[in-house]
């Protein structure tokens, strides 16, 4: 009897280990590159016909910001819908969230009319529709002025601007790159946009702000992030990571 119970316990333990990653694999960043504020967002498994509740609740996602979404369901294949200020909507259907950690909304149909407004009701989530959002570990929020541009040019101490080559010597591909003046309280936008920075590659970065010190945050696969603060950038032609 004991060997049977032991075997059963091992099977159950193995099942639990297999289930746990599946629950986390479909977690993703919802990125707002639309130029408009996202006022509502819905996430549902593609197998369902209802959207469920607005996962933002009373929160919004400003243009250039992002939130981390943890779907209620374990499904990899998800449908995501956002509603912008003015009522315009954008949908992304049958997205494999287990194979991407960033889903970007760009409002491809143009800017919504301001002053409009969508009606309707909020449905009760059924069978796994919906999810939760978090901002505590997101890389974006820190005030205006951060972000800057990715372009050529040399380093400069004048007019509050520094520029340098960021070199990826981490041995891994960097999925997201944020560089901001240490005086700012926001990270600004992802410097890579839709690109990634392979191991050994470099990217020209320019930062506008007060002082010579910059803060850098990089995000690798599965959302793993690293930060360095108060890096003296004036007079430097390159900054290597790590």
**Uncertain runs:** 15-23, 111-127, 136-159
Cα-to-Cα separation, first versus last residue: 55 Å
Order of neighbouring strands in the sheet with most strands: 6-1-3-7
Helix content: under 10%
What is the number of beta strands? 13
Summarize the helix and strand pattern as letters.
HEEEEEEEEEEEEE
What percentage of amino acids are in beta strands? 25-35%
| Average pLDDT over all residues | 74
Number of domain units = 2
Question: Structural class given helices, strands, pairing?
Answer: mainly beta
Gyration radius (Cα, Å) is 21 Å
Judging from the principal axes of the Cα atoms, what is the shape? elongated
**Quick one: biggest sheet?**
4 strands, mixed
Number of helices: 1
Task: Quickly describe the structure.
The protein is mostly beta strands.
Q: Could you walk me through the main structural features you see in this protein, from its secondary elements to its overall organization?
A:
It contains 1 helix and 13 strands. The protein is mainly beta. The strands form 4 sheets. It has a 4-stranded mixed sheet with strand order 6-1-3-7, with no helix packed on it. Strands 2-4-5 form a 3-stranded antiparallel sheet, with no helix packed on it. The protein has a 3-stranded mixed sheet with strand order 10-8-13, with no helix packed on it. Helix content is 10%, strand content 34%. The termini are far apart. The radius of gyration is 21 Å and the shape is elongated. Mean pLDDT is 74; it is low at 15-23, 111-127 and 136-159. The chain folds into 2 domains: 2-134, no CATH class; 158-241, Domain of unknown function DUF5300 (Immunoglobulin-like, Sandwich). β11 (213-219) and β12 (225-232) form a beta hairpin.
